[in-house]
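STRUCTURE:
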């Protein structure tokens, strides 16, 4: 009787242990592959968080952005920064380090200023928007009309001709608000405006204008356009609502040139078994000509470079090739990302995962992920060892970042973007405030540990991440048991152990 109970209890205990082991619902073969990378992952975390790579991401980024603070598309400064990155990567002995040519726009800001002339005279902080034309070497002066939306401007279209249109749109999130920056000039020109000023696309301001790209509609005349601060936009709204006669004078030397040649940057660690298959990860090199681009996108660039450096220092050689790609001219129209896709899209079946960090590198929480349910389950398992730094969350969607969207949308390659506590990102975005002061050493280290651990583990799987399918089905004997079954077995186990103790006593 006692031995029978012991057999039952032992069987139940083994059943429960097996259930816990495969609680993710993934096949045991995949769990074993992920488990085989855990020593490497632990070594990555130790090296980055407490070893000799601690603070390395911050220090390397500071050296880069202090030396190359502005890296505007088409500029000599951008190309010098690319030379610096290529030399850095070659000096570390990575495989296949090279640049890939990309035709990019060239635009310069020059001098600029604006001033309210009436009803009160006061200067305004302005930043011309990318691709804006200038004022032909003279002051452009005109009466002002202030609107809160495109719809309001259309209702007032008979009053627009010969005016400077000021957009004082509300902040409703970046995706819905940025259309005033990108299309406001042409919409105003449609009704005869001579210039446009757009409230900075930000939810918060300390009198800092935010620049960014804008696009002319070829159907309408090109007019100068610049961003102004939230404070000045609201001032002009109050004056306008009081029926004051507002006059503004503005001057801009902004100028467009013919396209020029820039380069995407590539470096690799060749895989040991499937070197033709790759995990691609990176950030973009260029920034606007204000601030230093430390946040957008120096942080994404540098956690990617540092991830490759950490993996190389530890002499970790995954089965698949790790490919770092640093894209050029993202800000003016995703030129580097699109050129890279067009040059390499036929390789998409061999791309296991593509990752870009371009939403700021703050305290990491995990990853955004776009892919099938089966691939997401694998990513969730891969990120579990990052739970000790609170960076193990996998959010569904948002894995198609600015330079990687074509791969994810058109070719269905699984995609990821860093998920971090970036609630303040648009406070500094495209402004003089985007500097190293925004960033934190510890947060950069944790993001680097997450980034490096992820690309290493994915590259070390036996197969590329699946493109289709949800969680694996029940042909695998080690699948997760239904919760009601687990509960029943637990109850049976408790009864058997209790009964065994009763007979023993």
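SEQUENCE:
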């Amino acid at each position: 009787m006692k031995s029978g109970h012991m057999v039952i209890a032992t069987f139940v205990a083994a059943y429960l242990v097996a259930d816990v082991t495969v609680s993710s619902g993934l096949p045991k073969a995949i769990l074993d592959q992920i488990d085989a990378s855990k020593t490497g992952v632990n070594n990555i975390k130790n090296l980055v968080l407490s070893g000799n790579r601690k603070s390395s991401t911050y220090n390397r980024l500071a050296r880069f952005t202090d030396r190359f603070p502005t890296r505007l598309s088409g500029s000599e400064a951008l190309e010098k920064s690319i030379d610096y990155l290529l030399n850095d990567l070659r000096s570390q002995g990575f495989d296949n380090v090279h640049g890939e040519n990309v035709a990019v726009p060239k635009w310069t800001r020059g001098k600029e200023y604006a001033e309210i002339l009436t009803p009160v005279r006061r200067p305004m902080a302005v930043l011309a928007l990318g691709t804006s034309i200038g004022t032909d070497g003279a002051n452009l002066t005109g009466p002002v009309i202030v609107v809160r939306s495109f719809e309001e401007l259309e209702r007032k279209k008979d009053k627009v001709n010969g005016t400077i249109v000021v957009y004082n749109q509300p902040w409703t999130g970046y995706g819905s608000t940025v259309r005033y920056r990108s299309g406001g000039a042409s919409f105003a020109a449609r009704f005869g405006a001579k210039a446009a000023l757009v409230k900075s696309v930000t939810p918060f301001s300390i009198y800092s204008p935010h620049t960014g790209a804008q696009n002319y509609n070829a159907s309408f005349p090109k007019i100068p356009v610049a961003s102004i601060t939230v404070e000045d936009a609201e001032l002009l709204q109050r004056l306008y609502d009081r029926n004051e006669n507002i006059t503004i004078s503005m001057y801009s030397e902004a100028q467009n040139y013919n396209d020029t040649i820039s380069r995407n940057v590539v470096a690799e660690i060749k895989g040991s078994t499937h070197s033709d298959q790759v995990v691609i990860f990176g950030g973009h090199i260029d920034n606007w000509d204000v601030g230093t681009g430390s946040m957008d996108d120096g942080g994404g660039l540098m956690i990617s470079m540092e991830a490759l450096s950490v993996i190389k220092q530890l002499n970790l050689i995954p089965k698949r090739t790790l490919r770092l790609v640093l894209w050029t001219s993202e800000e003016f129209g995703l030129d580097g990302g699109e050129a890279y896709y067009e040059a390499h899209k036929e390789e998409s079946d061999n791309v296991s995962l593509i990752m870009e960090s371009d939403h700021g590198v703050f305290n990491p929480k995990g990853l955004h992920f776009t892919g099938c349910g089966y691939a997401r389950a694998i990513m969730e398992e891969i990120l579990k060892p990052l739970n000790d730094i609170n960076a193990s969350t996998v959010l569904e969607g948002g894995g198609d970042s600015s330079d990687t969207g074509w791969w994810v949308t058109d070719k269905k390659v699984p995609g990821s973007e860093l998920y971090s506590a970036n609630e303040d990102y648009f406070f500094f975005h495209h402004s003089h405030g985007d500097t190293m002061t925004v960033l934190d050493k510890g947060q950069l280290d944790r993001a680097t540990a997450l980034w490096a651990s992820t690309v290493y583990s994915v590259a070390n799987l036996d197969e590329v991440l699946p493109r289709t399918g949800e969680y694996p089905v029940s042909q695998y004997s080690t699948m997760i048991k239904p919760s009601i079954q687990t509960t029943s077995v637990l109850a049976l186990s408790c009864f058997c152990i209790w009964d065994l103790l009763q007979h023993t006593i």
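REMARK: The longest strand covers residues 255-269.
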